[in-house]
Amino acid sequence: MPFPQLPKTPTGIDGLDEITRGGLPTGRTTLVCGGAGSGKTVLGMEFLAHGIMDYGEPGVFLAFEETEKDLEQNVASFGYDLHKLQKEKKLFIDHIFIERSEIEETGEYDLDGLFIRLGSAVDAVKAKRVVIDTIEVLFSGLKNQAIIRSELRRLFRWLKDRGLTAIVTGERGNGTLTRYGLEEYVADCVIVLDHRVTDQISTRRIRIMKYRGSLHGTDEYPFLMGDRGISVLPITSAGLNHAAPTDRVSSGVPELDDMMGGAGFYRASSILLSGTAGTGKTSLAITFLKAACERGEKALYLGFEESKAQVMRNMRSIGMDLQPFADQGLFHFHTVRPSSVGLEAHLATIHKRVEEVNPRAVVIDPITNFISQSDSAGVKSMLTRLVDYLKMKEITTIFTNLTAPSGQLEGTRESISSIMDAWLLLRDVEYAGTRSCALYVLKSRGMFHSKVMREFRMTDTGIHLGEIYTKGLADRQAANEHVETDLAAFGRNPGGRS
Amino acid sequence: MTTKMKSDSHPAEVTSAEHWTLRLYVAGATSKSAIAFANLKRICETHLKGQYEIEIVDLVKNPERAKADQIVAIPTLVRRLPPPLKKIIGSLADEERVLVGLDLRPT
C-alpha cells in the first residue's frame, strides 16, 4: 500500500541522496553538525551549487565565519565558480560579521537586521535553498541569550513559512550535538559529520541521526572530500543488482585457466588471491593484467607495497616486459603507501583512477595493508562497496592478500572471502629440504573448478603450473637440479618481502 | 523620523574637533526604534550639543544598507565618527552604558 512520501530536495551530493533516500526534507530545515573541519561548510555550499546547476533552484548562503572571498576560494578547488553563480543572480552570499568587542548592549533588541538581510537575499535571487553557516556565532557575538533563543525560534519558523529548504550548521559541543543546543529548534532532520583520526589516519564519516517521517540509512558512512567535493560512499550503491556476465577472461596462465573450468575467470568477477610472503602473488596478479593488455584491454595496477620501477624490474626477471603496454597506454600504474592517507582517501583515489583509466582488469595489491590500518568494520564496508563498484563497471579484479605463515589461510580476516567470487591460494610447501610453492583454487562460484593443488613455478618465461602436487613431486624436485635453477633464476628471496 | 546631513565620507581631521557622526539603524516605525531614537536624542542633547548629527537608516526601506555596517540586531547605533567604529545595540535605555559605549565616559 503506497503511503504519501515526504517531499524531498536532492542535494546532488554523490551518495548523500541515497542514504537519505532522496535528499533533505523540502521546505524544512536540516541541522548539519560536526567538529571544526568536518566539512559542514563544503556540504552546505555543495547543496546550493548543485541546487543551482542541477535542479534550477537558486540559493542563499549566510556566512557567519567566512567571507565571500574565502568561500569562493575554498570551493573553487572543487570546481565551483561561485563568482559566476552570483553574477548570474542565482546565488547570494552574505557574510555576517559580528565583533563582540565593538558592540555594547543596552536595552531591548531583536534580530530584525538579520531577518531583513536574509529576506532581501532570498528575494534577490528567488531562492529555494538557504544555508546558514554557522548561526551559533550569534551566541558568542551577542550577550542576551534569551533574545537569541527566541529569535532563533522565530528564524526557523520564518524559514518554514517561506517554504525554504535550509541547512543550518552547528559546531559539535562537548557531549552534545551542538554547542548551543541548536538541535532543539530543528526537529526534522539532523546529519552528523565526523572527522576522526585513528592511529594517525584520518577518516571522515557521515550519519543521518534523525529524519522525521522518512526511512534513511542509519549507519556511519565514510565520505570523501575529493577533487569534486564531497562524495558519500557508496558512490552509487550497486547493491546486488549488478549483471552477471557469463563470458570468461584468461588469467594469463593457461594451466590456471584449465583449473578454472577450462576458461579462466568470469568477467566482472572479484578474485581473492591469498598467500604467504614471497609466494608470487604480485607476479600472478600482474600476469593477469598483462593478459588483458595482450587482448588490447586496459589494465590498472593499484599497488601499496612496491614502487612502479620495482614492479617493472621484478616482472622483467620472470620474462615479462610491461613497458610496451605502458607506452601504448594500456597498462597503468598507481602506487602509494597505504598509510600515507586515510581509508576513504584511498577509496577516492581508486575510484578516481578507475574513472580516468576505465580499465577492464584491475589488481589491488595488497588489500592486507588496508586491513591493518583501520578498524575492521570500516574495511569490510569499504571493500564491499569497492567490489560492488568494480562489478558494476564490469571490471575483473584481483585482490591480493598476504596471509600469515601459520597456515590460517581459510581464516582470512574480515571474512572478505565471502564477498569474493573466486579464491586462489598460494602456499609454501617444504619437503626434503626444498621450499616450493603450490597453487590451488579454494572456491570459484558458478563453475566447475579443479580441486587439485598444483606446483606454482616462476621461471624466466613467466608463470607456469606444474603437475598435480604430490609428495612424490616434491621428492623429484629435491633431486632435480633444474628446479633449483628456476628458483635461482627467479632470484627472489622468499622471505624478502614484508 | 529625521534624516541625516552628512555622509560617512566626512574628513577624518574633523574628529579632533569633536564632531560626532552617528547612525541609528531601525526596521520600520516600531516602538523599540522610537524609544531608542528618543533616548539617543536626549543623550546627545545633554552631552554633545551642537557637535553631532544622527542619520536614521530604515532597513525595511533600504535593506541593502544593512551590510555596510554589518547590522544584525535592531536597533543598532553606530558611531561612525570619531573613529574607531563603535556599535551599541538595544533601545539605549541605560544612559551610562550608552556613554561608555560611545566613549564619552572613561570605562
Structure explained in plain terms:
Chain A has helices at residues 16-19, 40-55, 68-76, 82-87, 112-125, 137-141, 145-161, 254-259, 281-294, 308-317, 323-327, 343-357, 368-373, 376-392, 471-479, 481-490; strands at 8-9, 24-25, 29-34, 59-63, 91-95, 103-105, 129-133, 165-171, 189-198, 201-211, 220-226, 229-232, 248-249, 265-266, 270-275, 299-303, 331-335, 361-365, 396-402, 422-431, 434-444, 454-459, 462-468. Chain A has 16 helices and 23 strands. The radius of gyration of chain A is 28 Å and the shape is elongated. Chain A folds into two domains: 8-232, P-loop containing nucleotide triphosphate hydrolases (Rossmann fold); 248-490, 3-Layer(aba) Sandwich (Rossmann fold), CATH 3.40.50.300. Chain B is globular, with a radius of gyration of 13 Å. Helices cover 22% and strands 22% of the residues of chain B. Chain B has a four-stranded mixed β-sheet with strand order 2-1-3-4, with helices on one face. Strand 6 of chain A pairs parallel with strand 4 (86-89) of chain B.
Class inferred from helices and paired strands of chain B: alpha+beta
What kind of assembly state do the chains in view correspond to? heterodimer
Helix content of chain A: 25-40%
What would the principal axes of the Cα set say about the shape of chain A? elongated
Total individual domains of chain B:
1
Number of helices of chain A: 16
H/E series of chain B, N to C? EHEEEH
For the largest interface in this structure, which chains are involved and how many residues does each contribute? A-B, 25 and 34 residues
CATH topology (fold) name of chain B: Glutaredoxin
Strand order of the largest sheet of chain B: 2-1-3-4
Q: Give the low-pLDDT segments of chain B.
A: 1-16
Gross CATH architecture of chain B: 3-Layer(aba) Sandwich
The shape of chain B, in one word, is globular
Strand order of the largest sheet of chain A: 5-4-7-8-3-9-10-11-12
* Computed Rg of chain A: 28 Å
